[in-house]
Amino acid sequence: MFIEPEYIPLAGGALSYHPEYVEDSDGLYAELRDEVHWQQPVLEIHGRRHHTPRLVAFVGEQGLVYRYSGHQHCAEAWPPQVVWLRDKIAETTGYHFNCALLNYYRDGNDSMGYHSDDEASLGEAPCIASISLGCGRDFLLKPKGARSKSRKIHLAAGSLLLMLPPTQQNWQHALPVRRGLAQGRINITFRKVLSSL
């Protein structure tokens, strides 16, 4: 059954939330958890080096390179399940992507701090498409420069969230720690790298 997406306007941006976008999201979660070549890179943030509090994988077109937080990712081959999602998103939304960053949050202790996907290699006003698999988690957004969160959205299993242009220019987003949560979550963020700067 088709569910109409929810359009969420922001000051200087917008989101489009598509619930129940992926059928059998639990099965897809288990496949990717077990088959993807997960890594835990060390990133440099504010001059200090840290292991990422989650596992990551970067997939995309052959030879593609994506750099953020002082770490360079060379694209591994697209898993067929991710190709299927990429093509479905392109057909549904009209946005075409050449790579995806996968994040595996093993439990509620794994997290993502506030940031924007605004690297120069993504262009001035990128669209980011985010698929959620596994356990649902809260997603926080705040305007750049703000001290406290402004919006909270619960990203359910199987959902698609589009962060539409120019959201990355004006907003930051995060996935906070959720103490006591034993279940895992995989997030697939599709993007289009315009140049490997």
What percent of residues are in strands?
A: 35-45%
**Could you tell me the mean pLDDT?**
93
The run of helices and strands is EEHEEEEEHEEEEEEHEE
Rg calc: 16 Å
For the termini, the CA-CA separation is 42 Å
Textual characterization of the structure:
This protein has 197 residues and is mainly β. Helix content is 15%, strand content 41%. The protein contains three helices and 15 strands. The chain has helices at 25-35, 80-93, 167-170; strands spanning 6-10, 13-18, 42-45, 48-51, 55-60, 65-68, 71-74, 99-105, 112-115, 128-134, 137-143, 151-155, 160-164, 171-175, 185-191. A seven-stranded antiparallel β-sheet has the order 1-2-13-10-15-8-5. A four-stranded antiparallel β-sheet has the order 9-14-11-12. It starts with 5 loop residues before the first strand and ends in a 6-residue tail after the last strand. The model has no long low-confidence stretch (mean pLDDT 93).
